Give the backbone structure.
Amino acid sequence: ISYKEAFDFKSRFSKIASTSISYRSSQTATVKYDSRKTNPNVSIFGADENYVYVSGYEIEWGRNINQQDLNLNSNVVLIGQDIFKQIFNSSPSAVGKIISVNNKRMKIIGVLAEKGSGMSGGGDRSCIAPITYLRNNISSNKSISIGVMAKNNNQIDTCIDSAIGIFRSIRRIRPNEEQNFTITKSDSLAK
C-alpha cells in the first residue's frame, strides 16, 4: 500500500471509524542515551496521530504524536516500556530527553504503558515516531499499514465491508476482479 493510497483511504474512511496509517521502519534498531543502550531488537514505527489508539496502546507518561508533529516532520518519539526500564530505570524524567534511535536524534514526548508483545512484533520494545519524519529521514520504501477501529463491536463487519469498498475504489479494482489487498481482524483488540 503506497503512502498516497493510505492517505486517501484515511481521508475517506475517517468519517466512518477511527483510522490510522503506519509502517515499520526497522525491527533491529538500537536506542542509546548517554552510555546506556538497548540490544539491536527495537522496532521503529512511523505513525500518525491515531496509531496509539487504534493499535490498543496507552500512554503512561507524556503525550501522543499530534497533527503539529506530523506537519512539522518533528523528530519526536514515543518509547515502549522495555526501553523505558532499560535506559531510564522507569524514571518519568525520560520525557523530554534526547535519545539516539539508529543514530537519529529524537526527543521523547511519551512513554507507552506496558502492553506485552504481539504477533506483529513491537509491543514494549517499540519506538513510535511521526510517519512524516521517518519518511523524510529513514528509508520509506515500506508498505503502509492501515488500522481501523470501529466505534463498537457491532460495527466491525460493516466497517470491514465499507473498507473493502473504499479501498477497491482507490485501487480502481473492477467489480469482477479479485482484490489485491488483505484485511485482518484483531480479535484481541475487539475483546
Helices lie at 3-13, 51-54, 67-71, 81-88, 131-137, 156-170, 187-190. The CA atoms of residues 16 and 159 lie 7 Å apart. The mean pLDDT is 89.
